[in-house]
Amino acid sequence: MNQNYYIAIDNQQQGPFTLDELRAKGIQRDTLVWTEGLANWTKAEYLPFFKDILKAVPPPLPRQEVNSTTFQTPPPLPSTPPMNVHQGKHFGYELARRRERFFASITEAIIIYIPLFIIFGKEFLNSDEKITLASTIADAFFAAIGGIILGAIFYPLWSGNLGQKIFGLKVISAEDGSDYKEAGKGAIREALKGALGTFIIPAIWLLWDDNRQNLYDKVVKTYVVKKKQGQ
After folding, report:
1. Predicted TM-score (pTM) above 0.85
2. What are the domain boundaries of the chain?
3. What would the DSSP string read from start to end of the chain?
4. For 217-227, what is each residue's pLDDT tens digit?
């Protein structure tokens, strides 16, 4: 008994067809195919028995939808095009390693805070001040203010901060993979980073997070990734 195949063109189910009929139709590599034994619709290029019939020709115009009346029927068509298997959950980017993010933060701190120490000396370190809840909150406030200023300046330029720029990293949206280049969004992210960093624990969340996100990354929905070649 010949195997029957169903295909989807312009989100319309067509079939059943035999392999010979599909060969005559000239299906494309990204044509969605289903046959008995498959759990879901699959691109033709991923099915080994289609390799010898794939042709680089456009598919035919969709005809009247054919409703199958056989006992074995394909599952419903996906409501949106399937994600490319190589794209992955991080939009084709490689997540920055934890140590890369650490050294990027250290490098930025050295570049920004050493000049402040040179200018203000010991007063900048507040070495004689006892650590209290009030002083910690004050430190978090000033760290947030600094983050707002630096984020608003650097993110429109590099989609990230100074340390990330030096280490070839950038920040992208965890929702659509776009570069995080808006001044306002960059200011908010860096403000949260500065404020939460004062309390340490929220800022080291990425040590055990599967997506290598800190708490502020989760709040603003961002990933830190390695830049692709040429970016």
Report:
1. no
2. 1-79, 98-226
3. -PPPEEEEETTEEEEEE-HHHHHHHT--TT-EEEETT-SS-EEGGG-GGGTTT--SSPPPPP-S-----SSS-PPPPPSSPPPPTTTTTTTTPPBPPHHHHHHHHHHHHHHHHHHHHHHHTHHHHTTTSPP-HHHHHHHHHHHHHHHHHHHHHHHHHHSS-HHHHHTTEEEEETTT--B---HHHHHHHHHHHHHHHTTSGGGGGGGT-TT---HHHHHHTEEEEEPPTT-
4. 999 999 999 99
